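A common beginner's mistake is to predict each chain separately and then try to dock the pieces by hand. The better habit, illustrated here, is to supply every component at once so that their relative placement is modeled jointly.
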Amino acid sequence: MKTMKLVDLAKTIRSKNAGTDRITFDIIFREPETYELVKKSGVINRQFVLDLFGIPESRLADFVEFDPGYAIKFTINRLRPSGSFGEGDVFGCQQYPPLYDIEIPVPDDFKR
Amino acid sequence: MAKKKELRIISPNGHLGFAPTKEESFWIGAATKPDYYCADSGSDDIGPVPLGADKCASHYDHQKHDLELMLIASREQNVPMIIGSAGDTGTNSRVDMYIEMIKDLAKKHNLKPFKLCYFYSEVDKTYIHDRMVNGDQIEGLNSRSNLTLEELEATDRIVAVAGVHPFIKCLEMGADVIIGGRSSDVAVFAAPAIYEGFPENLAYYLGKVLECASFCCEPYGAKESVIGTITDEDVKVTAMAPFQRCTIASVAGHAMYERTNPFYEYVAGGCMDMSECVYEQYDEKTCRITNPKFIPIEGPIKVKLEGSGRVGYRYMGMAGIRDPYSIKNIDKLIDWAKSQVVERHPEGGYELSYRIFGKNGVMGDLEPIKETKSHELLVLVEGVSKDKALAEEATLIGTRQIFYARLPEVKGTAGTAAFVLDEVTPISDAYTWTMDHTVAMDNVMDLFPCHEIIIDGTN
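With all components supplied together, the output reads:
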């Protein structure tokens, strides 16, 4: 087994507001095989998200594996509503980059 | 009205006016003579300032450009045009503004008389207050608790988010053009489909897939038109831009966009369940969807309320930092600047925010990288206060004192900050989302009074 970075496996990695109080993250794959591989690796799960962003469980609003869209999706609560005084990302669209470097174990002969 | 076998709706723009509609794909779509021209023009994405201050986020000319395309094409064909969430926020003043635009455009194009129906969706604070005093709960959405009287008091403006009800009412009134107040995007498209007799299960999904126009296509390209087709059996969605397609992946992927959960979505009147949806590639540019569900709510309809409240006057200052010792001690440096504001104004009455770009300015508390590796930083200082002069002074001290920071080992004793401008600047007043709640309504139309006028562009 070797590992590959999520950025080299996924088609889309993004974050965006989901209403005024939440930011939702989408990790979308082009091929069902890649999606299944990442999903079955079990690397990305609720606890992983909490650790990566350094947040308590109460801030993770949802975590879903969305088979029809070949996607892993999770949503976190903001500390304050979007656009509040002192908030830095009104659309919530620049919170995903830490996901890029997640290492996923893949078979040695795996090619995307 | 004889029921159509299928109904075709064009969606030219996912947020009408926010950036101009791309014309080529719009006219390709218009040439196929869709039955309705529909678009939502709002979002809560833009933050609380526009709703609170009752202004637009979008540019006037872009809004008018997009309305003009839809008005010309729909009047040419004599089919209805439907706009929801007028002017970004859907407040009463934004509805009125869109009506004026339609009048201007009718005159410009010499349009024959047509009926414009419109509805408002602002909610009077006293109405909510009375409901609360009578013991009704204004339930919090997502992780919010139920509304308190203090939160209501801190709210400057409230809009209710309409479902299909006022749109259907306007269609029953014989509308050629509908200008809606704040609306659920989905409702703008679901309403005509339901009005024309198609099943709710499919009609709401049609709305879901059309709400963001070409966001359900690939490759990525916003502001391009798509056409949704509904029958009694299925929904089909087709990309109009020559370079785009609606694929299983792009359409299924859109279901999760901007939503906490990709399977369920609530609107005023019920819940869409997309967990059993079946997606098929129908032709090169078209995806076919079957088996979505809509579960109507039992009892009173819960209508979403959005509220924005003013926090105070707001100023902004910026300081650049290059000294590696200062960068290493940035937190102490900021603490110094804050302490100097406290020294001058120990009574408080202001709030300061520091975002440090090069450290964690974008992500703040969510930033996993704790070690700052940048060789330079930009500190963005925001100050807010109910007192305008205090907001300005606190921001000024809080910015300028970065220059005077007393760090024991700093060698650059002639100033520890670089200023692009040694001044602070007033920016939009600070607002916050005070309400993201629901109110239960026995008669949902009480929130959305509908009106009609005849517009004659020929005289």
